[in-house]
Design a protein that fits this description.
It contains seven helices and no strands. It has two domains: 73 residues, lambda repressor-like DNA-binding domains (434 Repressor (Amino-terminal Domain), Orthogonal Bundle), CATH 1.10.260; 38 residues, no CATH class. Helix content is 68%, strand content 0%. The chain is an all-alpha fold and 112 residues long.
């Protein structure tokens, strides 16, 4: 099947998300290709939204980027819960632990 010449909207969002996470890690496309075991050209097409990513590739990329697969398909501009997940993802382990303790305390108070 020939590759697209114009980006698929959903594939473009996933590709942009992968590019964003790669940039956070200061990884080049070549480095991500090496770590993920994928071809650099294919990764470039994924980031541009020119190919539809399959689940196996999504999992490979998530592992290479050190995130859960859901992070690649969760967009903080689409839902409040996604914004919360993105906020928590960016916290240090210590800060995340503190915030989760606060949430637990609030939930306990709400339950009484």
């Amino acid at each position: 099947m020939p590759r697209r010449t114009t980006p698929d909207p959903i594939s473009a969002k996933i590709g942009a998300r992968i590019r964003e996470l790669r940039a956070e890690r200061v990884m080049t496309l070549i480095e991500l290709a090496e770590v993920s075991g994928l071809n650099k050209g294919h990764l470039s097409s994924i980031e541009q939204g020119l190919v539809r990513i399959n689940f196996t590739t999504l999992v490979q990329l998530a592992r290479a980027l050190g995130v859960q697969p859901m992070i690649l398909v969760t967009f903080s501009d689409e839902h409040p819960l996604a914004r919360l997940v993105e906020h928590w993802r960016k916290l240090s382990p210590e800060a995340l632990s503190r915030e989760l303790d606060e949430v637990r305390t609030l939930l306990k108070r709400m339950g009484n």
